[in-house]
Amino acid sequence: MNGLLPDFTSAFVRRPAASFASGITTRAHLGLPTLTETHAAFDAYIAALRVAGLTVTELPSLEEHPDAHFVEDAAVLFHDTAFICRPATSTRRGEETLMAPALAGFRRVYAKGDATVEGGDVLFCQDRVLIGLSKRTNRVGAEQLKQAILDRLGTVQVDFVPFTGVLHLKTGLTEIAPGVLVHDPQMRLQTTILGLKIVTLPAAEGYAASVLPINQHILIAEGFPTVEALAAQHYNEVHALPMAEIEKMDGGLTCLSLRY
Prior knowledge:
Blueprint: E1 10-14, H1 35-51, E2 55-59, E3 75-78, E4 81-84, H2 95-99, E5 107-110, E6 122-124, E7 128-133, H3 139-153, E8 157-164, H4 169-172, E9 173-177, E10 180-183, E11 188-189, E12 197-200, E13 212-214, E14 217-221, H5 225-234, E15 237-241, H6 244-247, E16 258-259
Parallel strand pairs: 1-2, 4-5, 7-8, 10-12, 14-15
Antiparallel strand pairs: 1-16, 3-4, 6-7, 8-11, 9-10, 13-14
């Protein structure tokens, strides 16, 4: 068991469309990514998921939605439930609608009304769920998701984490091992997270704060020695992946798949 969630067995992914470089990014200073190199990085990512034991379902590219390969933002999966999100950015609206049919095997709960919520702001830890309050996830959306989680998981601890400085909660904060979070110093937390150890990375390695544990494996971005050393302390199977092209479009390891 991964704490609150069962071991992952499967994942949805969506191959980046030819239009992907026209998506939303705050990292234009890194230059434009190329489709060939992005697809090579995506293939390496899928291969790592399969080595970690997951059955991978690849959904078709969506040319009209250049950010749609960040499938984790469209839904949050926990046990038999799929919470269908509502993106905050108008250009991403519709991704969740196109994702929902693939989740027909789940009990689906939909964000409603004025809610905005994206899966990149939701972190299931060993003993609690953290929901980031950001430009992408508002309190209305967080409250709706919290209720959906409590309806299915009972008296689990759900903490709201307001922050600034990075795109999503999991851009700058993930759980590398039970009770141990890695943190990008560019992320400014506006609350104290009690009961968890937070390891703040060197500024030059902040991008690597987005790590992806999968059962007894962990995926990390290649080229970041601090995170690689931390991962090696907790996992025998460490997969360092090329993420430079994905980073150019504000992407990370967590957002490229929807795991269950």
